[in-house]
Write the structure tokens for this entry.
Amino acid sequence: MTDAVIEIITSLPRDRAIEAARFVASEIAGASDGRSQEVGAWAAGSPFTHIGDVETLSRLVLIARALSGAEGADSVERAIEGSGRKNLVLGGVEIVALAGIGVIALQLILTGGKLIETEITYSHDADGKPIITTRRTEKELPLSNALAAVLRPLFGLGRAEEQDK
Amino acid sequence: MTDVAEISDLESILKQMGGLRGLDDLKFSCPNTGIPLPGQEVQVGIVVPDDVDGVIALLDGTLNSFKCVCGASHHRLAPVMALFRPTGAAICVTAGAPLQQMTNVMKQLGPPFSGATFTEDYDGLLRSVLGWLNQMLAHYGSIVLNETLAKRPRRERIASRSPTLLVYLRDLAEGRWPVTVMLQNGRAPPDVAREAHAALYTGSMVEQFNDLIGEFGPGGLIGEARSRIPRRAISENILTQFANVARKRLEMRQSPAAGADVAELFARAYGAGMMNAVAHSLAGRQNPETPGWAALVRQAWRGWGSIDDNPLLAPAEAGPRLIGFEPLWDHCRHELAAATDISTFDDIERMFARLGHGDRFRAIMETNPIAIAVTPSEDGAIEFERFTVDILSQILRQHPLGDSPAESGHAGEMAGAALQLLAGSQQPEATLRFASSFIKSAIDADDPAAAFTFGTRAIPTLCRADRLEDAGQIARRLTELWHEPSTQGKLRHIKPRVLVSFWNECGSLMRYVGQPDEALRSYEISRAFLALVDDATVRDDDGAVLDRNEALALRDLGRFSEALPRIAALADMRPGDPAAQTSLALLHLQTGQVEQAEAVAEAAVLVSDPVVAPLECAIALVIRASARQSQGEHASALADLTKAMDLTSGRFSLMSMRIAACACQIKSARLYQPGLIAQAEKLLRDAVETGASNRYQLERVAPTALYGLGLLLLNENRQAELQLFDRKHLSPFLNALGEEAFIDWRLLRLKGAIEHDATRSWTKTAWGYLSRALSQINSETPKGRDVDFAAGWLADKDALQLETAAAAIAMVECGAVPAEVLLDIYELSNGRDFAATLEVRRGVVRRSSEPEAFPGPAEEANPLDALKAAAAKIGRDILLVACIDTPDEVHIVSLLASEGACKLNGSWPADHVETTGLAFTQAMESLNPAAPHDSEARLKTWAKLMDEFGAAIEPCLPLEALIAFLPGRRMTNLPLHLSYLPARRREVLREHPVIYSANAAILLDQAFPTERRKSRSLVVAAAKAGDSRQFQANLACAARRIARESDPQGRTGSGFARPSLIRQAQYGRGINRRGPVWRISGRRATAAAVMAGLAETEAIFLLCHGARIGQRKGYGFYLSDGSDLPPALAVDLEVAPEMGRFALAWQDFANASAAPSLIVSAACSSGRTVVTAGGARIGPEAAAFAKGTRCVVAPLWNVEQDAALDWMEAFQKARMTPDGAPAPIWDAHRQACLDVRAKYPHPFFWAPFIATGCLSAHQASRGDEA
């Protein structure tokens, strides 16, 4: 099953790989949208120069997520299924978006980070003054030990590996 | 001399030697994007020293490097022959692979070359290969040659195949070529290499200059040199050499040896001076020899000035780059002072004009001309009365009026020159009397030609002297003369160019005085005479001026969508013209596109010359500063203003004042640039203390200073000083003008802000000032001179709009003003440019159809009445819901047509709305169509806001009412139709039809009789490369079904265009005009075909992909280019303009003569509108509505393909009722959403489309019935 998914991921056309990775990355790191611009600055100046890197990042995000367990594999399958269905021609903006959120997502996957959901509500107090409430929900993001052992050193995440040991 | 053509022979020789591959093999693509790089542009040969670019590229190692649209540079490993022209020697300097190529060459040459080992380090090509060659040659030199040639078979073989190669070998041996190859890295001693390179290179360049001046003459040198020699080619050595030669030649001329030929010395000095000036100009450096050079130029003018197009003189456009104004002025001022008649002045003026310094010269003459040109009487007084009479009689004596067209022209020109003298004399009455006397003389002599010629000079002169009223009087008098029957009969005797210039000047005057509509009419007359001008060059030049002026008038009228393509085209056509770039930057600034404004202003700064034209450069800097300020980049904005202040300080007082005021707008500016703010405060204070108070617009120093100083005190919270300033200066200034006076809105805003500051709340007094300011900005949107606008206009406007809305809300809440005023505030703050668009469209229609047939909203000026009338017309109640933006909040105001009263329904903090809206957009952009519910968590906050929004409007919402959303700024692009009605437990759209509009002016705009188009539809279907076959088949089916639905009679097949005819559409020549429905699909669906069909159809359906197609163009459609489908990845058009062949932007619709009443698009996000500072809107409405569109139906987010096709089909099915009459668009829209919802329950699929437009779209969509 996993091998089949990986084979599909590696054979996806470039634009579909980027789109699918964006779905997965947004699911994982959607709450970090505010930080993604800063993180994706490396590709913002000339996105098409980095398209090869972004493509690699996309496949990496998909593979890492697919190897993180059954839930991740399902998520990747759904993302692949949904890719190429929008009436959009991918452009520089989408490439830069993935360059940011993709890196954040990959970090989260490899560090066994947390999925964060944020909900903001707005209300008034008794005096009519506005109150804005932000509620954050965190959920553990699983990562198989085998994958962690392989990927973490590649991304300079040795400390996390040591902690696991 | 070896011909360039010999390159091909040399190439074939090397091919025989096994080193070259055919160019066909050299095609390659960018590894990043896969886009093919140019195949035919590979340079295979360069000629030294002629091909300077090639030589430099060779030396740089950049020869045959190509930049892909992605920004990466790729080197094509193509062989290049360097042909040394004087000897015919050639060398292969790069190769298919440098290592391989050179190995092959060397192998052919035999030992010791064949056994040599090349270094692997060939980064930059020349570095290693040429370095190695140099080493070889240094060691072997002539031995190689002798050994090579000593062996007879080899010698004969080489001689028979390539005599040139022998020459080359000799050159190698004699050490001539090695100097060119010795320059790279450490293989040769660096000092030797550098010295040799410098000697060869400088010599080559000097030789190049000599060749050019010999071939094209001194006058042609600058043009040829600029086209051939890039700036980086001019080294310090070259400049020094030119300067030395010029100085020596000048010395020889000033102290000629006995018997020297003076004419010859002058010619040589002039030639050397010209080369020196051109070289310095190319390098962008100050010419050190300017005083002597100025004397040479003046002497050259005396000798050759009277000859038109003299090849010895520099062309006018290049004049300022070759000789600065100051040295020339210094040289001529004494001559002017000593002049006793006007002919000297005239001659010098012509010289300055010819050399491109006409404006500077006139400016100086206008400030103090009399002291220069007129000798005072013994007691020092100047009798202006007598002076004007004398001048007039002298002109009329020299050039009698009515004699001949030539004499008339001369008389008018001379009188115009005399008026220039008088214009700056502080004697306005004498000036005007002189003008009246001359015009009267011309009329008496029945000589309109002289009068109009005079007008062409007098009007701009008086405008420049800031005497617009006098200019207006002259223009009025001459316009009256124009309309006289006797004049009309004589028009054919007047040179057409005089009339072109006259009406152009009248137009510019009208623009300056804030009547751009009148200006357009003047330009129209001017253009009519332009066609009669014989000289094609003059016609083109004048046409370009008219293009620019018309575009500026359109801009001033607020017709941005029409102005933008023209101004952008001019800027593209003239990249080196600062004025063209400045105009475009201003337009971007005006429409709030600040990033583009900054980029274009940057270009304007780069091409403007701070030495030759400091004011122009300062304006470009101020515009860039404004753009940066609007983006919050305060430090860089202030740096720009500091530079601008340095350029203008002490020379251009009003501009300095504007810069000071602009700097004071920036909060905390003193922290960034304390020096600038201190200087600004001093300037402003001095002007406030001493300035005249009878002027009330910011075109004058005093009010500008008041405004700047007030802002500074306000921003720095210096309350005591602020109150004192208000009491002592601002209030007396405003009071002196009175209630009815026209006061610049910025001063009114300042006064309102000071009132608010004093009480820390919005009072009725503050509201009074702000509302007055806002109504004034409505009628006075920037006009005339560009600099007025640049000085922070947009930031002020934006702030004023938001502040006034806040004040109005406060006033409504305390009952001081009725809630209806909020609708007015909305209109003034949102999409004001559309109002201008509608006015224009009506104007056009009025002229082309019967006036009484036009209903027009002017008959129903009150929006309440208009809304009631609209409700009656469509037969259902209408609830208008407007979102009012203040600095801190978003308020909802509703107005129910049947009740006729406005209500405030609720509010949210602005931050909350912005954050929620952004989160919604991001969630929708990254939503997976295969798992839409995965994004639920990210949409929770949005859903909560929509719950609150629905709850706020539900109490006012009667059953079956149509809801018209005016979303304002922060709510634009959000699907308010998904707001949830708690009592009915459904989204709004499931219960009510909905329409969106930018503002009430658009919403309530009435249908008008368009040209009688038949009820035709155009269906466009285009997939992209890489789309699945299944989708392509679905797309084709959907297009066919929509076309079938569009034809009430059900005619299909034969009614559609045949492919052979449709093929024409690829080239924009038109489309098949048979049948009621036209359909173009696949590769035939080009942008040109769509544009061709716009004017002839009533409805258009765009079934294609959407994309962001560059900052300047925003969202748009991706179509075929006629031979290929659009690529799977979109490229920014600013990076790759050639990809524009696949793109059609909304703004392109402005170039069509008319647009369909209804536009329905399935392209992703094509319904999004960009709201910019000041409330301007860029997107579907802006361009299409200007051309007659009544409604645009398009998605707000990236739609799922199949659902979108289903939606389009359902919409068209719902729109076409069985009796053939279209149903109302909002009903069809709602029905389509409900139909799709049945198959796809998630709103991502069924709710992306919104209908934006007018309530009268209902009528317009009926085609012939309208």
